[in-house]
Amino acid sequence: MDKKIGIIGIIVVIVIILGVAAYAGVFDGEAEVTNDNTTFVVGFDAEFPPYGYKADNGSYVGFDLDLAQEVCDRNNWSLVKQPIDWDAKDSELDSGSIDCIWNGFTMTGREDQYTWSEPYFDNKQVIVVKADSGIDSLSDLAGKNVETQKDSSALAALQGEQKSLADTFAALVEVADYNTAFMDLESGACDAIAVDIGVAHYQINSRDASDQFIILPENISSEQYGIGFKEGNTQLRDQVQATLDEMFADGTVDKIAEKYSDYDIKDSLIR
């Protein structure tokens, strides 16, 4: 066989394989999704428990995804749980590859960028300290070392509306995740943690340490979660909202929230 012909043949085969793989979504890590009138495609961050995340068995679970499943069941839709690159959420929505963003999605500061559902969750940012720390109020944080997760809502609050509070700290340290922050608090490497209230409850409950930590009664900030649809898509928003209203009225939302009792979600629902 002519070597040139053989090499060309190999190249052709590789190109075909690459094309098929790209079409199938192999390199994106997700299969191609066909969106139609009977399919409801929810875009979400797969690393944001309890709202949407990957379980140990590889399935996608979470409070918001459970709500979306119930909405689909009541409308005879098929739910597609579509994990997305969070930085690409707007392009995904604008292209129609997803129908909405539903994943602990903060409305605050984005009010005019999407067609929103009614807010359904009040997410507070709070301070967690050791029970024996002697820190009882935000003013007691002066001169203390406070940790928070990078790119978090708590960090945004302390760099924004609560910057004057943060300026009283000895240090405001950003860590990769809240598990690290709680280990630092346990060891004494920091004095306090600024964190979302649901994550605070989860971290405390998962450590079986409700007597070791306290959440200060004063919030440092609060934000509301909603379902974000493409701007102008009021028809789909209205249908989802009407179904969600029914679910609140008949107690279904509360029942779903009970599955995530470690996060104390029920206390933050907006009815």
Outline the structure in words.
The structure is a single chain. The chain is elongated. It is 35% helix and 21% strand. Strands 8, 9, 10, 11, 12 and 13 form a 6-stranded mixed beta sheet that branches. The chain has 271 residues and is an alpha/beta fold. It contains 9 helices and 14 strands.
Radius of gyration: 23 Å
Roughly how many Å apart are the termini? Answer: 75 Å
Number of strands: 14
Q: How big a fraction of the residues is strand? A: 15-25%
Give the SSE string.
HEEEEHEHEEEEHHEHEHEEEHH
Biggest beta-sheet profile: 6 strands, mixed
Extract low-pLDDT stretches: 10-31
Judged by helices, strands and strand pairing, the structural class is alpha/beta
Write the layout of secondary structure elements.
Elements: H1 3-24, E1 39-44, E2 47-48, E3 52-54, E4 60-61, H2 63-75, E5 78-83, H3 89-95, E6 100-101, E7 115-116, E8 121-130, E9 145-149, H4 153-159, H5 163-166, E10 171-175, H6 178-187, E11 192-196, H7 197-206, E12 213-215, E13 221-225, E14 228-229, H8 234-249, H9 252-258
